[in-house]
Amino acid sequence: MDLTYLMLTGSLSGLVSVLLHSVLASAHTAVRPGAVIPPLQVSDALLHMLYGTGFALLFWLSWGLAAVVDVPWWVRGLSFGGLCWVSFAVPSVVGVALARGLATATIAALASRWATTSVIAGLACAWSWDRMA
Predict the structure, then answer these.
(1) 20 to 30 Å CA-CA from 53: which of 10, 28, 34, 127?
(2) Which of 124, 122, 52, 127 has the alpha carbon at shortest distance from 82?
(3) Is the distance from CB of 46 to CB of 54 less than 8 angstroms?
């Protein structure tokens, strides 16, 4: 598997997840006019792209989660995405929430952004790996 292609896939999946959350936040505001959209900055998009790139590198280093056998590519992607979300994103979100005393809705929005990035990156990497193997 070509590492450069996989890392580009991971980076783009991070960007797609940020864009997806922006669309969902806009739809939520359209349905509930009083709702506040959490601001999305360029640094957030770059951070999610960097996370997706590192995610793809970790996926490549694990040989596409080779320990999980006889399953479709999407199960492998969801498994890897869930593992990475629980091990990387959840501790970071909890740490920021405890340090800043954030509201529950803000914590849930941050956790869902990182969960979306993890799941989309996991699915994209697993699909790319399966297609190239």
Answers:
(1) 28
(2) 122
(3) no
Query: Can you read off the two tokens belonging to residue 76?
Result: 């492998």
Domain assignments of the chain as residue spans, ordered by start: 3-132
Could you tell me if 53 and 4 are in contact, meaning their C-beta atoms sit under 8 angstroms apart? Answer: no
Residue whose C-alpha is closest to residue 21's, from 124, 121, 115? 115
Return all residues near 25 (Cβ < 8 A) that are at least 6 apart: 37, 38, 40
User: What are 49's two structure tokens?
Assistant: 């792209």
Pair 79, 64: CB distance under 8 Å: no
Tens digit of pLDDT for each residue in 50-77? 988 988 998 888 888 788 788 899 999 9
How far, in Å, CA of 31 to CA of 107, rounded?
21
- Cβ–Cβ < 8 Å for 15, 61: no
For residue 57, the Cα-to-chain-centroid distance in whole angstroms is 14
| Cβ atoms of residues 10 and 53 within 8 Å | yes
